[in-house]
Amino acid sequence: DAMVIQNPRYQVTQFGKPVTLSCSQTLNHNVMYWYQQKSSQAPKLLFHYYDKDFNNEADTPDNFQSRRPNTSFCFLDIRSPGLGDAAMYLCATSRDLGRDIYEQYFGPGTRLTVT
Amino acid sequence: RKEVEQDPGPFNVPEGATVAFNCTYSNSASQSFFWYRQDCRKEPKLLMSVYSSGNEDGRFTAQLNRASQYISLLIRDSKLSDSATYLCVVDGANNLFFGTGTRLTVIP
C-alpha cells in the first residue's frame, strides 16, 4: 500500500506556464519535504513543513512555492517554469523520533519536463 | 566543504563479492545517519538507519565512526539485485544532507 503518493508521476509543461505537483501521505507524519533531483545528483531540499510551519531553504528560488492545507497533503507550485527546472521532484515525510532523528520516506516522484 | 561526501564509484563487483562504501560528514554534531538505496529513475528507499556505532541487517552492515566522522556500508554476498546507487545521508536538524551517491553494479 502506497504511503507517500505523488501525482502526477510525469508532468510536461511549457516554459513559463505554472504547474502544481501534489503529494499526499497516509503515515500521519508531521513533517513533509520537497526535493528536487537532477540526473546523477543528490536530492536537493527545496523546503519543508514541520506541522504548519514552513521552512524555506536559503537558496530555493522564489519561483518555487508550497502549500500544506492539512497534515496529509502538500503541494509544490512552480510559478514560471524554466528549462532548468526540469527534474524529478520528490516528496518525503518523516516524524520526530526524538533525539533529532527523522527517518524520511519518499514518494515515487514526479518527473517534470519543460518544453 | 560539502556536508556529506561519498566516492561516486562506479563499483563493479562480481556476484557473491563483498563490497564496502565509505562516506564522510562535516558536522560533528550530527546524530542520525542513514543509508538509502536509489534505483535508476526511482525514489530513494531507506536501507538502514545508524544511531549508535553500527547496525546490521542480513547481508548489510553499517558502521559509524564518530571520531573520524565517517560511515561505512558493507554488503556481503552481493546479489544482482543489489545493483543501485547508495546514498549516504546525515541529519542536519529537521532535514537531511545527502551525498551524491555511490553507484554499484553487480556483475553475473
Give the SSE map.
The complex is a heterodimer of chains A (115) and B (108).
Chain A: E1 4-7, E2 10-13, E3 19-25, E4 31-37, E5 44-50, E6 53-56, E7 64-67, E8 73-78, E9 87-94, E10 105-106, E11 110-114
Parallel strand pairs in A: 2-11
Antiparallel strand pairs in A: 1-3, 3-8, 4-5, 4-9, 5-6, 7-8, 9-10, 9-11
Chain B: E1 4-6, E2 11-14, E3 19-25, E4 33-38, E5 44-50, E6 54-57, E7 60-65, E8 70-75, E9 84-91, E10 96-98, E11 102-107
Parallel strand pairs in B: 2-11
Antiparallel strand pairs in B: 1-3, 3-8, 4-5, 4-9, 6-7, 7-8, 9-10, 9-11
Key terms:
heterodimer; A: 115 residues; mainly beta; B: 108 residues; 5-stranded antiparallel sheet; 0% helix; globular
Name the largest protein-protein interface in this structure: A-B, 24 and 22 residues
Rg over alpha carbons of chain A: 14 Å
Please state the structural category of chain B.
mainly beta
The chain-level structural class of chain A is: mainly beta
Which bin fits the share of residues in helices of chain B?
under 10%
Share in β-strands of chain B? over 45%
